[in-house]
């Protein structure tokens, strides 16, 4: 059954003190991101909630501070669907901080019914979930290199297991199906995470890159995309409490990757229950597609061209 704790299961009680560590969580105003930020604030970290909606951000701050009186947490505006916003956010971080210890790339949009584009003309799911995080990670890598045991945690999804990256139609201009496009965006996050690990090792950046997925959780991510009145969402909300785990439970792989001394760079973590749907953090299966090194190099090169963000150049300079 879901939620049954094994004797050696990793939970929030295993989080080491995060006092003195600076952690950024994208999409931290609700669902998995909120639960991640809440647990990190409880562990003593200085947390930056990064999101595009200030009112939701302020509401999340108020809620976290009501639970954690000593919470050291603030909100910063960041729209991952706008590369100018990503760069502006990074510049603010460089001006305010000397280092960054953990970047959690969590924000996402899902199942947008009809094709939409970002401010830069990218298909919305691919642009927000992946390209925005690619650029953000590049801009913040100089700060991460100055961090203590620095880590990038890329939040993927079970959907990545069956995803394919269509290099001939990355922006889904000729063929748009919401779930296929979502799978592609999350697979791209996984491929990016593994390639970032390889490059960090080769170039001696000293930054760990770890991928995670939360299993199936009760969040509003799908409803925000499809719409709350969609029949699929109504069924999901009816059966979700029975078959899906909570957002707090789903955040455990992210928290493990962000804080545990046992988390290994270049690895993928998810729930240990049936087919990775629910449970406690453990190693997750990586699809053959995600292991394709040539595809990873191609995605990296393409991402650099699309975003006009040169990862290698930025890692050796300040913004």
What key attributes describe this structure?
Rossmann fold; 12% strand; 43% helix; 11 helices; eight-stranded mixed β-sheet; 8 strands; alpha/beta; 319 residues; single chain; globular
What does this structure look like?
The protein has 319 residues and is an alpha/beta fold. The protein has one domain (12-217, 247-308): Rossmann fold. Helix content is 43%, strand content 12%. It is built from eleven helices and eight strands. Strands 3-2-1-4-5-6-7-8 form an eight-stranded mixed β-sheet, with helices on both faces. Strand 1, helix 1 and strand 2 (46-51) form a beta-alpha-beta unit. Helix 4 (124-144) runs parallel beside helix 5 (178-203) and helix 5 packs across helix 10 (293-307). The radius of gyration is 18 Å and the shape is globular. The model is unreliable at 222-228 (pLDDT under 50).
In short:
The protein is α/β, with parallel strands linked by helices and 319 residues long.
CATH-defined superfamily: NAD(P)-binding Rossmann-like Domain
Number of domains: 1
Residue share in helix: 40-55%
Shape: globular
What is the string of helix and strand elements?
A: EHEHEHEHEHEHHHHEEHH
Arrangement of strands in the largest sheet: 3-2-1-4-5-6-7-8
Mean pLDDT: 91
How much β-strand is present in the residues?
Answer: 5-15%
Summarize the SSE layout with pairings.
Elements: E1 22-26, H1 31-42, E2 46-51, H2 54-67, E3 72-77, H3 83-96, E4 102-105, H4 124-144, E5 151-155, H5 178-203, E6 208-212, H6 221-226, H7 231-243, H8 247-250, H9 252-259, E7 268-271, E8 281-283, H10 293-307, H11 311-314
Parallel strand pairs: 1-2, 1-4, 2-3, 4-5, 5-6, 6-7
Antiparallel strand pairs: 7-8
Helix pairs in contact: 3-4, 4-5, 4-10, 5-10
